[in-house]
Amino acid sequence: MELTCEQLDAMLPEFFDGTLGSETEAAAAAHLATCDACRVVVHDLERVGELARSHGRLQLPDEARGRIRSLLDTADGT
Ligand SMILES: [Zn+2]
């Protein structure tokens, strides 16, 4: 399953929530591994989450943060 940037963008909320199915999440990860543009978007969202969290407004679950970070690390390593 290959995703377009638009498809990935549309599923980012669920991606951050961890509510994508495992197949879909794998497809999202595969897209992120090959698409700099979407990686930048996820990076930005993660940073926004950190900022919001430091202001006590939005909680990004540690599990989601860890998963995103490991995806980004994997993508950077290849
Ligand atoms: Zn993309």
Structure description:
The chain is mainly alpha-helical and 78 residues long. The protein has one domain. 78% of the residues lie in helices and 0% in strands. The chain contains 4 helices and no strands. The protein has helices spanning 5-17, 22-34, 36-54, 62-77.
Summarize the structure.
The protein has 78 residues and is mainly alpha-helical.
Number of strands: 0
Oligomer: single chain
Strand content: under 5%
Query: Any ligands, ions or cofactors bound here, and which?
Result: zinc ion
Through-space gap between termini: 20 Å
Helical percent range? over 70%
Rg, please? 12 Å
Coarse morphology: globular
- Return the domain count: 1
Assign the structural class, choosing from mainly alpha, mainly beta, alpha/beta, alpha+beta, or little secondary structure. Answer: mainly alpha
Succession of helices and strands = HHHH
- Mind describing the biggest β-sheet? none
Question: Please, how many helices?
Answer: 4
Mean pLDDT across all amino acids: 83
* Unreliable runs: none
Labels describing this entry:
78 residues, binds zinc ion, 78% helix, 4 helices, mainly alpha
Layout: helices, strands, pairs:
Layout: H1 5-17, H2 22-34, H3 36-54, H4 62-77
The structure holds zinc ion.
Zinc ion is lined by residues 5, 8, 31, 35, 37-38.
